[in-house]
Structure formats: structure tokens, C-alpha cells
Design a protein that fits this description.
By secondary structure, the protein is mostly helical. The chain has one domain: Growth Hormone, Chain: A, CATH 1.20.1250.20. The protein is built from 19 helices and no strands. The protein starts with a helix and ends in a 22-residue tail after the last helix.
Length: about 525
């Protein structure tokens, strides 16, 4: 340890605050692993609930709305209940609603429970962030690296966990498993996290009903626009145009109110801080890359390539391992002087890895894919800690409670929008590629004809009548052509995702050093023992 004084200092900081770590991080990890666990078995959920690919989005939309409201209410609930009780309320609500969601048999009965589960998720992840931030007054980047590990590593592993639970039992166990986990987290938190002493001199934060209404209207209209736009026909539909206008109005009102109101539900004036704005932009781009890549690759492996649930999980697992390793490396060797370098290097690796995935087709080896994801995970781990610290660096303690909700809101909402948009673009590009491939059959007629005859003879040799063999042969070639069309479309989507992620490199270069010197830097003396 003598050769690594920083590592030794961080180790002693962790030992001094281990109770807070073990009280908060497991709950955050449980919640975030669940957030992506349904990416793999979506088709099973659609069949079990007797729904379709459009109505199933009401389940994810309800969860998204609940999460956004929970994040926004963190400061309000924290000022009245205290951060400890707010966190416990979030854990209890998330756990109970998860069990009820798992028992639902229809979309309409699951949606309210998913909303309640999302509400608990929003409360616990935002309250947990502030609790950790206050517990490490002299090692804030360490606190954010630990929080980032509990957020993004489980989110990456969630698809693997969901696939394994589905293969083991059923997709419903993705919900049911939260009952024992939530109970354990609740008991650990009560045991380890100290009770807060309420400051009677402080006035509780009032509830901003206007801001809450604008936020709800914005999320609801956004869900309708994204989920039903393709079904309606985008701008060719009067229904879509009306809902789009409603979203634009709600969004504009939300931005204006959050910028000018005295005590808005989500205070957007925090964007006046240069590094805070850039840090949020970096995390938005990072989150879009992470959540979109996990969702897209899950669909590619399971739906396009026909991987088993456990196989898809094992392909993603190397990214989880390398992400944890690089986060720990950043904690050990990270300094203020190399913070921008670590973010730039990490994002560069993510861009290059995403660009490498552009070559995916219907024959790509799963081992090659796992290797690229391992490199991607290593890059992602380098970004998490320094980017989170850049957002919160130099803020007063009261501001962190407000910004925790803002951060988590802008971490999840743009990622959801981008993921749905990319999936929609994938579908449209697939149709275009399929049409192109069919139209080019006449240019490759000899090869296609030979393939038809070969597959027909194979079906006939296995006992099919001659006429049925012809039908089966045509169906086989059609499925193969459609699979190639989807693979070609995915290449375009991943290329766009890599280009978008590269924008984060520009934002990293614009981060200012010493920005916190011009803001209210918090010292250790300003943190009460109860808050820590």
C-alpha cells in the first residue's frame, strides 16, 4: 500500500463507510438489474399476456412514468420523510409491486403495478445516490464510482439474468425473485443505515403540482408517440399528429416551468453550471449507448440468431466482468488530473467497439461477439466514475438532492427514447432491405433457383410430398432472406449508435478543469454524522 497512497486512502474511506455502502448499493443494483431483465424474454411475455408488440409497450411505459415521477419526488419526499425513509419506502414499493406484476395475466392489470414498481424504483435510486454522496465528503468520485457500479453493471447484466431466469423457470420469476431480494435489502438497510434526526428549523419542500402535471403529460404523450407512431403511420395519421402536438406543448411547458419557477419539481437551472451540463450530456450519451446496445443485441441474439436464453446471457457476461474490473481500476488509479483522459479513453473504446459490431450478420460467431462486448465493457467502466463526479462536483448538499432526481431522469428518459427510436428504425430498414433483396432475385436467378431446388430435394428426401417440399423450400428461402434483411438493417442502426456516442468525445474535451473552484465546494465539516 505504501507504493499506492491513493489506493490506501480510498481503502480506509471504504472501511469507514462500509455500513452505508452495504445498506444502499444492493437495493440500487436489484432495481437496475430488473430494468433490463425483460429485454430477452419479451416474446414470451407477449404470448403469456395475449397481447402484441404495440400494447406490450404500455407495461414498459407505465414503469417509465412511475420511475420519472419517483425521481422527481426525491427532494419532496426526502425533506419530509428523510432520505433513509425515502429509500426504504422505495424498496418496499418496488418489491411489493414486482410480485403483483409477476402474478398479472393481462396487460391492463399489470400496467398499474408496473407504475407503482417504477415509482419505488425512482425513489430508491435517487435517494440512494444522495446518501452515498453525503457519506464520502472527501472522496466524492469514489462514491460516484460505487454508485455507477451499482447502476450500470447490473443494467448490463440484467439481460443475462432475465434470460437465465426464463430458461430456468419462467419470465415471471424476473418479478418474483425481487420478493426475497427486496426483503433482504429492506432488513439490511434498517440494520445498517443510521436513523436521521430531522432538522425542525428547515422548511419542508412544497409539492409542485404544476410541474408534476407537466411531467406526467410529457411522459404519457411521449409513450403514445413512440409506441403507436409506427402503427398509426407517423405523420400521415391525424391521431399521431395530435399526440405529437400535445407532447411538444407539454415538453415546452416542462422546460419553461423548470427554468423559471421558484421551486419547480425538477429544477433545470442546474444546467447553468458548465461542467454539470457537460457531465449530464456525457452520461446521457453513455446511457443511450449502454441501454440501446443491450436491447438491440438481445433481440439480435434471441430473435434473429435463435440463441437460447442462457447463451445470450453468457455472451453478455464478459462485458459485465470487464466493466467491474475497469471501474475498480479507475477507483485505484484515478485522480483529478486524469479524469478527462479516463472519460475520453473509455468513450473512445465504446465507440470503436460499437463500430466493430457493424459487421454483425447471420453467421457472426458468438465468441467474437463476446470478445467485442468485453472490450466495450472495459471502456464503459472507465467512464462511469469520472463522468458522475463531473456532474456533482462542487454542488452544495441541498443541490445534490435536487440534482439526483434530475440526473436519473436524464439518464433513463433519453435512453428509452433512443432505444425505441432505434428499434423502430431497425424495423423500417428491415422492410426496405427485404424489398431490395427480393427485387434483386432476378439478377441472381441461377443461384436462387439452385437454392430452391436443393432445399426442395432435401425436404422431399425427408418424407415431404413434392408439392409440399416446394412450399417448404420457398418458406425457407423467404425466412433466410428476411433474416439477412434484419442483419443488414442492424448494421445501419449500430453505425448510427456509434456516431452518436462519438459526440460524447467532443463533450469530454469541453469539460473545464477547476470548475468547482468557482462554485460552492463542500467540506467534510458541512456533513452531519446522521447524513453520513
Amino acid at each position: 500500500m505504501k507504493r499506492f497512497p491513493l489506493a490506501a486512502e480510498l481503502w480506509w474511506a471504504i472501511r469507514a463507510r462500509w455500513r452505508v455502502m452495504f445498506a444502499v448499493l444492493p437495493g440500487v443494483a436489484m432495481s437496475l438489474a430488473h430494468s433490463t431483465a425483460l429485454n430477452v424474454p419479451t416474446a414470451d411475455v407477449i404470448d403469456a399476456l395475449d397481447t402484441d408488440k404495440y400494447r406490450i409497450h404500455w407495461i414498459s411505459g407505465s414503469y417509465l412514468l412511475g420511475s420519472a415521477i419517483g425521481m422527481a419526488l426525491t427532494r419532496f419526499a426526502g425533506s419530509r420523510l428523510g432520505l433513509r425513509n425515502t429509500y426504504l419506502l422505495g424498496v418496499a414499493l418496488f418489491t411489493a409491486a414486482a410480485v403483483a406484476s409477476g402474478a398479472a395475466t393481462e396487460v391492463i392489470s399489470m400496467a398499474p403495478w408496473r407504475f407503482a414498481q417504477g415509482l419505488g424504483n425512482g425513489l430508491l435510486i435517487s435517494a440512494g445516490m444522495v446518501i452515498l454522496w453525503r457519506a464520502f465528503p472527501r472522496h466524492r468520485e469514489l462514491a460516484m464510482a460505487l454508485y455507477g457500479m451499482a447502476v450500470f453493471v447490473p443494467a448490463t447484466a440484467g439481460a443475462a439474468i432475465g434470460g437465465l431466469l426464463t430458461a430456468w423457470q419462467s419470465w415471471r420469476w424476473i418479478f418474483f425473485v425481487n420478493l426475497p431480494l427486496g426483503a433482504i435489502v429492506f432488513l439490511i438497510t434498517i440494520t445498517l443505515l443510521p436513523t436521521e434526526h430531522r432538522d425542525e428549523s428547515r422548511t419542508p419542500v412544497p409539492l409542485d403540482l404544476i410541474g408534476l402535471a407537466l411531467l406526467t403529460g410529457m411522459i404519457v404523450t411521449l409513450n403514445v408517440v413512440l409506441d403507436l407512431g409506427q402503427y398509426w403511420g407517423w405523420l400521415t395519421s391525424r391521431h399521431f399528429t395530435a399526440w405529437l402536438a400535445a407532447f411538444i406543448a407539454a415538453f415546452a411547458g416542462f422546460i419553461i416551468w423548470g427554468s423559471v419557477a421558484r421551486r419547480p419539481l425538477i429544477n433545470l437551472r442546474v444546467f447553468n453550471h458548465w461542467n454539470t451540463s457537460l457531465g449530464l450530456l456525457i452520461k446521457v450519451i453513455f446511457s443511450i449507448n449502454l441501454y440501446s446496445l443491450v436491447a438491440l443485441l438481445s433481440m439480435y441474439m434471441v430473435n434473429l440468431r435463435g440463441y437460447q436464453w442462457w447463451q445470450a446471457g453468457l455472451v453478455i457476461l464478459p462485458a459485465v466482468v470487464t466493466m467491474i474490473s475497469s471501474i475498480l481500476l479507475g477507483i485505484a488509479v484515478g485522480r483529478a488530473g486524469n479524469r478527462r483522459l479516463r472519460m475520453f479513453a473509455g468513450l473512445s473504446v465504446m465507440v470503436l467497439a460499437t463500430w466493430q459490431l457493424v459487421v454483425l450478420d447471420v453467421y457472426t460467431s458468438k465468441f467474437w461477439l463476446a470478445g467485442v462486448l468485453a472490450a466495450w465493457g472495459a471502456g464503459a467502466g472507465l467512464v462511469i466514475g469520472p463522468a458522475l463526479f463531473t456532474i456533482f462536483e462542487g454542488l452544495a448538499l441541498d443541490e445534490t438532492m435536487t440534482l439526483a432526481g434530475v440526473f436519473n431522469f436524464f439518464r433513463s428518459q433519453p435512453a428509452y427514447i433512443a432505444t425505441v427510436t432505434l428499434v423502430t428504425f431497425w424495423t423500417q430498414a428491415t422492410d426496405a432491405n427485404f424489398d431490395w433483396l427480393r427485387q434483386n432475385v432476378r439478377f441472381n436467378y441461377p443461384i436462387v433457383s439452385e437454392s430452391y431446388e436443393s432445399s426442395r430435394d432435401r425436404f422431399v428426401a425427408r418424407g415431404s410430398p413434392h408439392d409440399q417440399g416446394i412450399v417448404q423450400s420457398h418458406a425457407l428461402i423467404r425466412r433466410w432472406t428476411h433474416a439477412n434483411a434484419r442483419a443488414f438493417a442492424l448494421q445501419d442502426v449500430l453505425r448510427d449508435l456509434a456516431i452518436l456516442t462519438a459526440v460524447g468525445l467532443v463533450a469530454v474535451c469541453l469539460v473545464r478543469r477547476g470548475e468547482a473552484d468557482n462554485r460552492r465546494v463542500v467540506t467534510e465539516r458541512s456533513v452531519s454524522p446522521q447524513a453520513a
